[in-house]
Amino acid sequence: MVRKLLSIVMLSLVIGILTVPAAASLVPMSWGFPQMVQDHTITVFEKDFALATDDEAAAVSFPTTASDLCGTAFGSAFPTITQTAVQSQTLSSVKFMNENQHFAFAYPFLSIGGSPLPAMGFL
User: Fold this and answer.
1) Under a CB-based contact definition with an 8 Å cutoff, are residues 33 and 111 in contact?
2) Which of 49, 73, 81, 111 is 20 to 30 A (C-alpha) from 99?
3) For residue 80, with 0-12 CB atoms within 10 Å meaning exposed, 13-18 middle and 19 or more buried, which class applies?
C-alpha cells in the first residue's frame, strides 16, 4: 500500500512537472545610438554714419590810430587779435558678420531592467 501510494505521488509529480509550461522572467531591454544635431546661422549687416562740425571765431580789436590815443592813459598797447577755428569730423562704418555653428552629439544607449534612465548597461 505504501508502495502504491508512493507510485501515485511520483506519477502525479511527474505529470505536474510536464504539464507546467516553460517560462523565463525576462527584463525589458532597449538599446540604440541617440543623436542630437543642431545648426545655427546668423548674418549681420550694420552701417553707421556720423558728422560733427565745430565753427568758432573770436576777434578783439583795440584802437591803433593816433586820434584815439588821447583819451586813454596808455594808448593802444595791443594789436587787433582775430582767431578762427573750424573743425569737422566725419565717421562712416560698415560691418558685415556671418556666423555658422554646427553641433552634434551622440552616445551609445543600453538600458537593461525597469530603469527609465539610459545607461551603458550598469543600471
Assistant:
1) no
2) 49
3) exposed
- Number of Cα atoms under 13 Å in the Cβ half of residue 64: 6
Contact 46, 40 (CB under 8 A): no
C-alpha cell read off for 18: 510536464
Cα 19 to Cα 5, 12, 23, 64: the distances in Å are: 21, 10, 12, 140
pTM of whole model > 0.70?
A: no
What digits encode the pLDDT tens for the residues 66-117?
565 555 555 556 677 889 999 999 999 999 999 999 999 888 777 666 655 5
The residue count for the chain: 123
80 and 61 Cβ atoms separated by less than 8 Å: yes
Amino acid at 110: L
